[in-house]
């Protein structure tokens, strides 16, 4: 197989609220929006999609057990941006020395968990 990109789809009861989060809070670029779903560019070939639960391809029984990790080159700037948008339950930035990573995890629309992470070493930055 020759995969060319990656999209993770999240299902929402209130897609318009999710659109606000991805558009305004995270500042992601919309690349496709037929109305009942929306896809945003996260990186060169990585995307996240939001789908109206009433129109999606799968039945959604729960929303737990998923962490959407978004990598940035400056986590302090990202934290300040999230504070401006009054994102709830923002923690302090945690530093994980054993993997050379800064991280903060918070709750987004409809209970989905999001992580903003910054890799410290140049090797990790090139990889991710």
How would you describe the overall organization of this protein?
The protein is an alpha/beta fold and 128 residues long. The chain has two domains: 1-54, 2,3-Dihydroxybiphenyl 1,2-Dioxygenase, domain 1 (Roll); 64-128, Roll (2,3-Dihydroxybiphenyl 1,2-Dioxygenase, domain 1), CATH 3.10.180. It has helices spanning 15-25, 75-84, 122-127; strands at 6-12, 29-32, 37-43, 46-52, 67-71, 94-96, 101-107, 113-119. The strands form two sheets. A four-stranded mixed beta sheet has the order 1-4-3-2, covered by helices on one side. The two termini are 22 Å apart.
User: What is the radius of gyration?
Assistant: 15 Å
Distance between the termini: 22 Å
Strand order, main sheet: write it out: 1-4-3-2
* Total domains: 2
Order of helices and strands, N to C? EHEEEEHEEEH
Q: How would you summarize what this structure contains?
A:
With 128 residues, the chain is α/β, with parallel strands linked by helices. The chain contains three helices and eight strands; from the N terminus they run E-H-E-E-E-E-H-E-E-E-H.
């Amino acid at each position: 197989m020759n995969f060319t990109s990656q999209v993770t789809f999240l299902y929402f009861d209130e897609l318009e609220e999710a659109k606000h989060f991805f558009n305004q809070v995270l500042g992601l670029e919309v690349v496709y929006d037929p109305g009942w779903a929306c896809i945003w560019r996260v990186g060169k070939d990585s995307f996240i999609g939001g789908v109206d639960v009433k129109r999606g391809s799968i039945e959604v029984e729960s929303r737990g057990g998923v962490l959407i990790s978004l990598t940035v080159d400056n986590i302090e700037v990202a934290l300040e941006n999230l504070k401006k948008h009054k994102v709830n339950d923002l923690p302090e930035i945690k530093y994980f020395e054993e993997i050379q990573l800064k991280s903060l995890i918070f709750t987004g629309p409809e209970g989905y968990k999001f992580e903003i992470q910054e890799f410290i070493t140049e090797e990790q930055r090139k990889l991710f």
